[in-house]
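Ticket reopened. Same input as before:
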Amino acid sequence: MTDARDLDARTRADEADVARARAGDTAAFAALVRRHQDRVFGFILRMLDARDEAMELTQDVFVKAWQALPAWRPEARFSTWLLQIARNAALDQLRRRRVVQFAPLDDGLDVADGAPGPEERYASRQRQARLEHALQRIAAEHREILLLREVEDLSYGELAAVLGIAEGTVKSRLARARAALLEHFRPSAGVRDD
Amino acid sequence: MTSNCPPADALSALVDDALPPAVRDALLAHSAACPLCAARLAELRAIHDAFQDLPATPLGFDLGARVIARLQADAPAAAPRCPPPRPHWLASIKRFFNDLPAWRAALVPLAGTAAALAFGVVLGGMLLIEDEAMPSGSPSATLVAMSLFDPVPPGNLCPRADACAPKGSSR
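Engineering reply: fixed in the latest deploy. New output:
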């Protein structure tokens, strides 16, 4: 979880850099890019499950952000606004593909080794792999809301703004997304517990 | 799930801590007593925990420099879009036609005044035209037409004897 004080400091830094970038300061915009590149890339990578494509699209997202800078309002956090652009770009790319992709389990995603013992390390790796695998098998609509909530830690209000839906719809869509993910995440596909 | 069990989106919202305190407490109390809801809640928490364990996905290089280089290469197309300034002369013409109705209201009396002045100047100029019959340099040659403004003798239509008689005619 992000520390609230860190978040405030980052938000203030973003606002200051946006103001300078709007005046044409490209160094300020470069600072914004560096601060948010990994987050945007990570989201797009998990949406597309293709590293090269995600890298190119991440660059496109920041170019679009530069062009749309005059339209940004401080009511929304800059990072949330960026994720909205990233989300639209990823969905456009998925529409262009127009095929269902079943990515190999180990494609481009390194599994971190953070558990203390060998059995726990193995279990952790298995769990991560199962999650990545399950994410690529659910609908893009469910994948995006899960990534934005679970990884990007957006609130229900921010999710509503990014996705252009009501907060009530956020709640029900998240529930359906989790149910869909569970179908593929459970260690053994078996009887549903209804 | 039994009919006493909460809806699926309530358990999901519980994982997000997105419920009012009273609702949250009631849900937790129910889950503690309901094996089905307890199992469901455990699954939802498991995927939540799995998300937290996902590895970071750093790009691995400085995208800032690349983006700036691309913006500079595409400079005319990539500049922050502000509405392009209109050429000054175009703005002036547009302003003139926008203001035309107001100008029309002011122009009519002005035009009438100008026309009256011009007519007066023309008439005055005509008054200074020399009559060819008058000897040049004659003091009375300069204001021939001024006789138009002289009082007309009673019974006369012409202000002077020579004002109406054609040249060469005898009276």
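Residues 88-127 of chain B form the longest helix (40 residues). Residues 132-137, 167-171 of chain B have pLDDT under 50 and may be disordered. Please confirm and we'll close it.
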